[in-house]
């Protein structure tokens, strides 16, 4: 009897009707399409030897490669015609990802249907701004002009060149024909900005040569520099208050050791941990010395090239889940410059001020001068706790717990293996997005990317205990230049360039950038799988603005604009283009509209969550028996869409297939026949559906159980203004 039932189950799985047998099997068996867990091996063995004897069979016609049903007379009914060849569909999306410090970009796209035909491939074309070809007869715009790539890949590296404005278009082709083009927005590529002749760089990279200083070393050879020489390379130099960078030029009569007033021995080593919830607080905690504050990096670019700025640019989703900023700072000596009157401003620079040439003075001397420099080394990390099954509020709470544990464990100046093990147990089921940067030490430079809290504790402890004492300038303070005696009694900004106007505008662009990040991170192909981005974008729908422009297109053009205007306001030669984002004078020249025209069409995404529990059981019975149950939970209105980037199944037993937008935690399961989850749209609302089927073994054997928590994460899209 049991063997008979297995055969019926197999036939059912192969799509064969139950009346192939004289005795109809029980109804509940004919509906079953999954094998039993405990019968997998025997079932698969039976299936392997029976495929040719049951049901549907494939025959090949002598005249043509035609597939026939065994129950159909191919000669009488005629061959089944193959489906006609068709051209591919339009690619679903295209994105242009710029590469920092490079004239190249990575173009990515999401494919559609390949159609029916041979020689399937993609064609990628490139178009520079103001070089749009036109059809000679209709005078209408055609596709971008230059064919730059042909192949089967879903991405391509292109090098349009520096200071170019470019867009891309991709289409899919096969032997039948080609789809229409999917076209990107325009992007500015590694634009050149006029800083009025000023040359600046981050504090930690200011040295007399390429070598790091050695603590306690007083060598004056050409290949090594002392710690003091490292400090003097920055001390009293000009300071750009907008970029937070140091000028290579000094505007004083005194130089070298003559400018040094005193050296304070500090020798202070300290761990620090802070939890931040905004990009403004992240910038402050990382000591990103940019008066503009804000992210200025959503487009993937930061003004300064320091380690702190890079770390700031790479840290994402701060406002959703909060971030821990962790640091170990080893301070050695603080070098103090002499008073300004003693340093003595050089005559050419005094003349610029006396002759009312403040921009010329700023070009060489900056807004302030470096008053103190502290040498040392430091390592910084941002730590983001990640959990597929937790809400943002739960993650924030867990992040606070992690911060408290790290503070406690570091109190004695070290982390132990037992402490690392304890944290591993406490945060079981969580993952970590950890990014670090080191300043000083022989391994300075590249960003560190870690995904284990144990690995992070090891790296941090190793750095703190290292004998590697290569030092750089890690901190500075700045002071205003004195007003020349010939202009005594004149207010400061009547003599010097008033950078504060541009600082305040930069702060506004920073706030806009931070809010764009919250509205757009789930559409960013830098961090989210393209398929998930496509699903989210499709669920949100299109905004018909100057054509078929999606939310992701709007995000891409908005962040490109932010990057441009940040640079306008940061570079002295571009100040005539620096406007507040909501000013009527602020024009997005690439997209030919007011600066806020496109950002205002980007919806705000508020976090939402719906969850439902599925609890199903079946006791033992004389013959194998089944119990099914399904549950449903829907978002409350049509403005809420699923977060398709979540698709986890968390289980140690029965594992249903992952579904984009759902997180399923299976708590208990045994004797499970099948379990499935799905997201459907009903009356415009997205709904979570969960179904399971369990069985009790025959002969009053053990019953079945399936218990799971099913979560549908999502965003509520709302029309919400910006706080500028």
User: In what range is the share of β-strand residues?
Assistant: 25-35%
Q: First CA to last CA: what distance?
A: 75 Å
Q: Total strand count, please?
A: 30
Q: Biggest sheet, open or closed, and with what strands and sense? A: 8 strands, antiparallel
Radius of gyration: 33 Å
Count of domains: 5
* Low-confidence residue ranges: 1-75, 134-143, 217-224, 290-305
Number of helices: 18
What is the share of helical residues? 10-25%
Tell me, briefly, the overall form. Answer: globular
Structural class based on helices, strands and sheet pairing:
alpha+beta
Average pLDDT for all residues: 80
Summarize the structure.
With 724 residues, this protein is an alpha+beta fold.
Give a verbal description of the structure.
- With 724 residues, the chain is α+β, with helices and mostly antiparallel strands.
- It has 5 domains: 2-51, no CATH class; 93-189, Immunoglobulins (Immunoglobulin-like), CATH 2.60.40; 200-277 and 322-495, no CATH class; 500-603, no CATH class; 605-718, no CATH class.
- The strands form 8 sheets. Strands 10, 11, 13, 14, 15, 16, 17 and 18 form an 8-stranded antiparallel β-sheet that branches. Strands 3, 4, 6, 7 and 8 form a 5-stranded antiparallel β-sheet that branches.
- It is globular and about 105 Å long.
- 38% of the residues are buried.
- The model is unreliable at 1-75, 134-143, 217-224 and 290-305 (pLDDT under 50).
């Amino acid at each position: 009897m049991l063997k008979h039932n297995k055969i019926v189950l197999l036939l059912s799985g192969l799509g064969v009707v139950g009346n192939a047998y004289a005795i109809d099997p029980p109804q509940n068996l004919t509906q079953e399409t999954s094998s039993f867990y405990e019968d997998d091996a025997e079932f698969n063995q039976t299936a392997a030897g029976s495929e040719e004897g049951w049901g549907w069979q494939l025959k090949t016609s002598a005249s043509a490669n035609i597939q026939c049903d065994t129950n159909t007379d191919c000669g009488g009914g005629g061959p089944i015609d193959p489906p006609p060849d068709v051209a591919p569909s339009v690619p679903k999306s295209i994105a242009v990802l710029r590469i920092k410090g490079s004239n190249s970009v990575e173009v990515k796209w999401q494919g559609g249907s390949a159609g029916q035909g041979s020689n399937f491939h993609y064609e990628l074309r490139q178009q520079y701004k103001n070089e749009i070809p036109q059809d000679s007869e209709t005078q209408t715009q055609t596709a971008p002009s230059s064919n730059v790539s042909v192949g089967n890949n879903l991405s391509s590296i292109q090098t349009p060149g520096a200071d170019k404005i470019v867009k891309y278009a991709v289409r899919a082709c096969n032997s039948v024909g080609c789809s229409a083009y999917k076209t990107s927005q325009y992007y500015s590529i590694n634009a050149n900005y006029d800083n009025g002749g000023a040359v600046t760089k981050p504090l930690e990279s200011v040295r007399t040569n390429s070598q790091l200083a050695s603590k306690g070393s007083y060598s004056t050879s050409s290949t090594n520099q002392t710690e003091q020489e490292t400090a003097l390379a920055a001390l009293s130099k000009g300071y750009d208050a907008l970029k937070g960078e140091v000028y290579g030029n000094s505007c004083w009569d005194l130089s070298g050791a003559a400018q040094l007033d005193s050296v304070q021995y500090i020798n202070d080593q300290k761990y620090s941990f802070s939890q931040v919830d905004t990009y403004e607080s992240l910038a402050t905690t990382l000591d990103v010395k940019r008066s503009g504050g804000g992210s200025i990096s959503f487009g993937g670019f930061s003004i300064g090239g320091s380690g702190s700025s890079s770390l700031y640019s790479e840290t994402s989703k701060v406002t959703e889940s909060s971030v821990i900023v962790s640091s170990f700072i080893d301070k050695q000596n603080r070098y103090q410059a002499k008073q300004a009157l003693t340093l003595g401003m050089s005559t050419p620079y005094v003349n610029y001020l006396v002759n009312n040439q403040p921009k010329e003075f700023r070009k060489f001397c900056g807004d302030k001068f470096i008053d103190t420099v502290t040498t040392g080394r430091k390592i910084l990390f941002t730590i983001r706790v990640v959990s597929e099954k937790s809400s943002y509020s739960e993650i924030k709470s867990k992040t606070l717990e992690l911060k408290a544990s790290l503070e406690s464990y570091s109190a004695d100046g070290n982390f132990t293996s037992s402490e690392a093990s304890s944290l591993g147990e406490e945060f079981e089921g969580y993952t970590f997005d950890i990014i670090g940067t080191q300043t000083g030490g022989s391994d300075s430079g590249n960003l560190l990317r870690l995904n284990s809290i144990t690995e992070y504790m090891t790296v941090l402890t190793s750095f703190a205990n290292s004998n590697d004492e290569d030092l750089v300038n890690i901190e500075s303070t700045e002071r205003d230049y004195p007003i020349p005696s010939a202009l005594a009694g004149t207010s400061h900004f009547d003599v010097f360039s008033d950078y504060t106007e541009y600082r305040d505008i930069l702060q506004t662009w920073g706030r806009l950038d931070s809010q764009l990040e919250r509205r757009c991170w789930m559409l960013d192909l830098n961090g989210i799988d393209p398929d998930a981005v496509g699903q989210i974008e499709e669920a949100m729908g299109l905004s018909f603005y100057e054509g078929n422009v999606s939310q992701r297109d709007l995000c891409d053009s908005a962040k490109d604009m932010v990057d441009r205007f940040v640079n306008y306001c940061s570079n002295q030669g571009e100040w005539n283009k620096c406007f507040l984002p909501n000013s009527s004078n602020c024009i997005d020249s690439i997209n030919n509209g007011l600066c806020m025209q496109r950002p205002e069409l980007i919806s705000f995404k508020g976090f939402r969550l719906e969850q439902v529990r599925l609890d199903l059981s079946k006791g033992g019975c004389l013959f194998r028996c089944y119990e099914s149950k399904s549950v449903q939970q829907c978002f409350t209105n049509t403005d809420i869409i699923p977060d398709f980037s979540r698709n986890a199944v968390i289980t140690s037993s029965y594992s249903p297939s992952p579904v984009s937008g759902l997180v399923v935690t299976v708590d208990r399961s045994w004797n499970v026949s099948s379990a499935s989850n799905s997201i459907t749209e009903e009356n415009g609302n997205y709904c979570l559906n969960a179904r399971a089927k369990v069985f009790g073994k025959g002969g009053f054997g053990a019953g079945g159980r399936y218990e799971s928590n099913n979560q549908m994460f999502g965003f509520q899209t709302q029309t919400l203004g910006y706080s500028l």
